[in-house]
Amino acid sequence: LLQLYGPLNFLGSVYSAIRTAMVDLEHMFGLIEEHVEVADPEHPLPIATRLAESAPAEVEFRDVRFGYGPEREILHGVSFVAAPGKKVAIVGSTGAGKSTISRLLFRFYDVWDGAVLVDGHDVRDYRQKDLRAAIGVVPQDTVLFNESIGYNIAYGRLGATPAEVEQAARLAQIHDFIQSLPDGYQTQVGERGLKLSGGEKQRVAIARTLLKDPRVLVLDEATSALDTHTEQEIQAALKAVSASRTTLVIAHRLSTIVDADEILVMGHGRVLERGTHEALLAAGGQYAAMWAAQGAEGIAERMVG
Ligand code: ATP
């Protein structure tokens, strides 16, 4: 029995490592307690995935109705178009339905009514694997693997060359930091190695996404405030990854979306206001009130800081 102990113990830790990785991925999309089946079509349409090989995608929500359970509708007819290469920002109070929109774009669920379209075709016409290859996400909290920092970036496109990994890290403003580590790109991160700050992890996620080179980008902005220097580095990295890519930003700080082509102000599953930053300010509605309130908060933060 004692002889069995070693191998069994080893298997146990492998199992637990796999479980952790699975849970991490599910956690990334907030899917922990949900296992919803969406089916691939019998004759899937092809979809181009990388920006390097094709144009940016067009994303459209056409009168989308959706709820997680039959008893409660969450989105009550949401429509918008993100034209190729344009940036659409979604703002609104907590629970308004912002993250739900990104989950429907990835087709983690099917809509009740209306449609989500990419390149003019319903997302239900594509193979899920292909659709998700065409969309990249920079989540609020990036989950890193217990691997080298180089692997964590290369994961964006397994098979990328070390030069491509380095190029992505440079664009994401994380290369110099990695170079300063004792083992450079080979430095282990996570439980068994280096712990990265929130801002560093986010830049690793951005480098990973740059490497993946998707035609659509979803940025789920972190709620937590970062210090000014980190904030500037992150903004520069985000600019690199969203440049000429169709981008959907779930925004918490309005200062980061003033340049969006269209801002959707969501409330209780509806688009309440829409327009550019200037147009929404001029309209003097809810967005203008949020802007005034956040401006005051920013000033208060700077005074405290
Ligand atoms: P926040 O800014 O707080 O992240 P949000 O605007 O992204 O909020 P969503 O996460 O899209 O809001 O949630 C919209 C509504 O759907 C909320 O009322 C929420 O309780 C509900 N909801 C979200 N996920 C689930 C789920 N898995 N099952 C049931 N209801 C859910």
Automatic annotation (TrEMBL):
Give the principal location in a single coarse category: membrane
Q: Which residues cross the membrane?
A: 1-18
Q: Where is the ABC transporter domain?
A: 59-293
Query: What is the membrane topology listed in the Swiss-Prot or TrEMBL record?
Result: Multi-pass membrane protein
Which GO CC annotations does the UniProt entry carry? plasma membrane
**Localization:** Cell membrane
Superkingdom per UniProt = Bacteria
What are the record keywords, sorted?
ATP-binding, Membrane, Nucleotide-binding, Transmembrane, Transmembrane helix, Transport
Q: What is this protein called?
A: Metal ABC transporter permease
Tell me the part of the parent protein that is shown.
265 to 569 of 569
